[in-house]
Amino acid sequence: MGSKSALIHIGGGYLQLPSLRWAREAGLYVVLTDMDPDCPGRALADSFENVGGTDVDGLLELAHNVNRKYEIAGAYCSNDFGLPAVAAISEAFSLSGPTIKAVRNALEKARAREIWKREGLPIPEGELITGFGELENLARSMGMPLIIKPPDSSGSRGVSSAWKESDLRASFENARAFSETVIIEELIRGVHIDVNGLFLENVFHPCGTLDRFFSDPPLHYPVWGCQPSSLPEEKEKQAYQLVERGARSVGINAGPVKGDVIFTESGPVLLEIAPRFHGDVSTSFVSPSAIGFSPIRSWFDFLAGRSVEALPGDDACTAVGWMALFPEAPGKLVSIRGIESARAIFGILDVVPTKAAGAVFENTRDNTSVCGFIWAAGDNSVVVHKLLEEARDHLEIITR
Description:
With 400 residues, this protein is α+β, with helices and mostly antiparallel strands. It is 32% helix and 29% strand. The N and C termini lie far apart (52 Å). The mean pLDDT is 94.
């Protein structure tokens, strides 16, 4: 084991470039893993291994190999798929980070619901079911609309709403495509808030809130967001408190945490929690521009044994937003036209394709079909949204 601290960074696509850079700046020896040997992040890493993020055994073996030459400090990923490996590495080396049990509790939505219900946390009314007959009975007793989703999917895949009885079958089959069991929840009306936090030595630090907006029903996939959130300070504090309580109740008390909260007229309602930050789009690109800070860098400083500066909340100097780009039709991506003219619009920070020509889209209505992002800055969220829409109108996404 060597003296220099090493980080296993799972994922090296374009959206991971900032976190790779921050890891190097923190003084960590960065071992990048990705299924794509030609991923953009490879040039920023100290070494590269062709290992997938879901290969827990392979990543754990890699961590042991790295630790023979360096002192393993931790593993990092920005999506749910890599969290079991992050937890396995954290436990194997007694590192600060999520435990295997905490990851299981958080990612298995039915299990998390049971824990939060037992703890008395505000969550949507709902049940875990296996058959369509149960859904019909619940729809009669709970009323409509309902959210119907798989308990172990991510990226809004398999999530849809049913507003009338004739919608139930399609929503049920949509969720069953990803899981044998299905979660039925009341549809909560309010403002969707993304909450970032960071546990350092068992102390929770608020790390920013964003408003997130979704597609029209019946599907509910994210289409754009903006930081800071629309919450006044006191309500933002309530959202942070709920996420901290929800995280601790499932066993998360070290490292990153993200929460999905709906803020209703009667207060915040907890939807989901995971031991990671919100996606790279918001945490790596939006937060640094809005508040001059990304909690990812603070986490890496901590892992490297460096002093961590005060973690700000949402003292944004400007409003910064993102918008996802989706193809109009399934098929193979040919090109995205109009990028330079969209970038030339005052207030647009960048327009970035995330899929190369030849990428195949089986559908156009969940996170797997995102082919790029736009970032914009303005005085407030209304201005930002108009800029994002203007830039999007300059773009033509061609598929065949």
